[in-house]
Write a structure and sequence with these properties.
By secondary structure, this protein is of the alpha/beta class. The chain has 3 domains: about 130 residues, Nucleotidyltransferase, domain 5 (2-Layer Sandwich); about 100 residues, no CATH class; about 130 residues, no CATH class. It is about 50% helix and about 10% strand. It has 12 helices and 8 strands. It has a 6-stranded mixed beta sheet with strand order 3-2-1-4-5-6, sandwiched between helices. Strands 7-8 form a two-stranded antiparallel ribbon. Helix 8 crosses helix 10 and helix 10 crosses helix 12.
Length: about 400
């Protein structure tokens, strides 16, 4: 099997079922249920295991031996499981031992639309096996496989995702502290200031009394958590800046590093946005511009039946972080790159919109975000310049 396949909707290798051992795994925290199709064996074995990769490998070898005793030489072992809590470590572990492993997108597996359908691990393995067999036979759209990243690629995404979570936590802390102060009639006090903990004791309610002791203690603890979260955000940003400045050209992550540096030269794109775009989408081996837009969650969801034609909005089947970041970047693009071709295209499409059609601007900003994502993908992968865009001088 090729190491990298750009078409994840069908297998690039023809299926020879007489020499292929096929297995699917229904994974949970407590156990794994493994279903298989063994060449030369009429029954379809089903085995429950503890969450142990070595036990899974022994089971596959046992099934291979059964096939050989039945007169069938197994030259290919294909294993699949749904993407979930365990991530991709098992697929990488199996591939390192010569086993073809795939990770199925759960939303791509067709299920019965019966109102109250039975759902058990045994039935789920049947659904997985049916979808996996169709994919192995080369039938398009039977199910979609997720690209399996390396450990280094997964690790490169952690700083941006952790920072996003910490920024959200910091915002929640500030809102919670302001709500607590508002319940006692205190307004105009900023709990995010560096000197806010020292001024808490002197704070007075409209009645002229100090804050109740438990409320003051709660605010003090919340301010301590706020300072801790802020310090952690600074540590992430400092570590990333140091890594970008000191990364050698021969490092394994040299290509993503060069992409981040290139995107950060574009006016309106900061280090945080560049790092998120590169590690989430631009460094992936995507087939074409349609695949880029689809992975970014910026494609439409048409609803057509008979004479009815309407759009249900964004499909939202891609990466939510990329979608949010690109829509925010599209609004910034109009401000920082007003002379670019994309900004002029947006203004030409919206200059005559007024009255009840103001919502069209929001829909067109999604189109601008899609065009901008494709343009940035071309810039990062092929070096194709952004027409009319201003760049910062190279460091």
């Amino acid at each position: 099997m090729p190491k990298h396949s750009t078409d994840m909707k069908k297998s690039p290798v023809a299926l020879d079922q007489d020499s292929t051992l096929i297995a699917v795994i229904e994974m949970s925290e407590a156990s794994w249920l493994v279903a298989g199709i063994v060449p030369g064996i009429a029954r379809q074995p089903l085995k429950k295991l503890a969450p142990d990769a070595e036990a899974l490998l022994r089971l596959l070898e046992r099934w291979r031996a059964e096939a050989e005793r039945a007169g069938r030489a197994v030259t290919r072992v294909a294993v699949a499981f749904e993407a979930g809590r365990d991530g991709f470590w098992l697929a990488r572990w199996l591939r390192a031992r010569g086993i073809e492993a795939h990770v199925i997108h759960p939303s791509s597996v067709a299920v019965s639309r019966t109102h109250r359908r039975a759902k058990t691990d045994r039935l789920d393995t049947r659904l997985l096996m049916r979808a996996f067999l169709g994919w192995l036979r080369g039938e398009a759209d039977h199910c979609t496989m997720a690209a399996i990243p390396s450990s280094a690629e997964e690790d490169a995404r952690r700083p941006s995702r952790e920072r996003e979570a910490l920024v959200g936590e910091r915002t929640r802390l500030v809102n919670r502290m302001k709500a607590t102060l508002a319940r006692h009639g205190v307004r105009g006090f900023n709990p995010a200031l560096r000197k806010a903990p020292g001024r808490l004791a002197a704070l007075r309610t409209p009645e002229g009394t100090p804050l109740p002791p438990d409320t003051a203690a709660e605010l003090a603890r919340a301010m301590a958590r706020y300072r801790l979260v802020t310090e952690q955000i600074r540590e992430i940003e400092a570590a990333r800046a140091a890594r970008l400045c000191a990364a050698p050209a021969e490092a394994p992550q040299a290509r993503p590093h060069a992409m981040v540096v290139l995107l950060a030269r574009v006016h309106g794109i900061g280090i945080e946005t560049a790092d998120m775009l590169v590690n989430e989408v631009l460094a992936r081996d995507l087939r074409d511009r349609r695949a880029v837009a689809r992975y970014g969650g910026l494609t439409g969801a048409p609803d057509e039946s008979g004479q009815r034609r309407r759009e249900k909005g964004l499909a939202r089947a891609g990466n939510a972080r990329v979608r949010r970041g690109m829509i925010q970047l599209a609004w910034r693009w109009l401000r920082f790159q007003p002379d670019s071709v994309l900004a002029r295209w947006y203004r030409a499409r919206t200059e005559d919109i007024a009255g009840d059609r103001r919502g069209v601007r929001k829909r067109l900003i999604v189109a601008l975000a899609r065009k901008l994502l494709i343009a940035l993908w071309r810039l990062a992968t092929t070096g194709e310049p952004l027409e009319g865009a201003r760049l910062r001088p190279a460091a």
